[in-house]
Amino acid sequence: MYIAGTGFHIPEKKLTNAQLIAMVDTSDQWILSHTGIEERRVATDDVDTSDLGVQATRAALAAARWRAEDLDLLVCATSTPDRLIPATASLIGMKMEIDPVAFDVNAACSGFVYGLAVAQALGVAHGYRRIALTTPEKYSRVTDYTDRATCVFFGDSAGTVLLQPDEPEAGFEVVDVVMANMNEGADFVITPVGGYFWQNGRRVLEYAMKGFSESAKDVLRRNELAPGDLKAWVGHQANLRALEAVAELVGIAPEQHWFNVDRCGNQGAAGVITTFCEEVVAREAEIAHGDLFLLTVFGSGFTTGSALLRRVDRR
Fold first, then answer.
1. Residues 144-187: pLDDT tens digits?
2. Residues 23 and 110 both lie in one domain
3. Which of 76, 109, 151, 277 is catalytic?
4. What is the pLDDT of residues 60-99, one digit of tens each?
5. Residue 157's domain spans which residues?
6. Which residue among 42, 61, 92, 210 is least packed, with the fewest CB closer than 10 Å?
7. Could you confirm whether 277 is annotated as catalytic?
8. Of 135, 153, 168, which residue sits at a domain end?
């Protein structure tokens, strides 16, 4: 399968460290030293997760010059759905006035890679030829802004990739996708029904360091690659300090490390793909046919996974 188009939507409204300090007992120095986050983007109260997905999907469709009505499969990877039922994917379809097969995937912050594996498999097995995978997240909906241990992290956004079985003139080949779970840690990151996000930060960090680094190394090993063979590495945008540590463990050089967590916060499943989409647009002139990109994720469950993409550009 190939990615024929990408799109993303990041809300305009900012929540800065200065604003958080006025809300909760913390400091700019603590936030920066522990997370590397300077500001987050948050959707307004009248914007739902599905609205973010609509915006990102429309941007991807425009980039690929696809018609929305030609989509035959819509997979939504989110852990902050509009409702328990129906699927947020169905609400996105309703708002876009289209009727593809539509459903949600919840692998928490690993949703992009898990959703990519599902979309790829269904494309191959069932012949879907126009697939949208969208990753909208509205974490401001489930963030307790009186809890200084968690509220410093989260922001809202959405990213969408369009998949097809035929090589596009310009896009990305899905070379490899891996997933793995460490389900003994399922109680360490939770959002109860009707409640707020909570995590055992110390235990999460233990699992994240292991899961992140092993997943990235696994893909490199499977494909007989060295870290230096990559054009870029993009991790789940949880925490810049953690990402820097993982990059060092894997052997990723600073110039290979793409991130937006410093100005967008932890965006759940969306962060890895909003970063990728933003940087691909910003660095278009320096990206060449054959360049390799590794996207690695980690989330509640615990879930982890990686996707290896290769640039296609026949223009």
1. 999 988 999 999 999 999 999 999 999 999 999 999 999 999 99
2. yes
3. 109
4. 999 999 999 999 999 999 999 999 999 999 999 999 999 9
5. 2-168
6. 210
7. no
8. 168
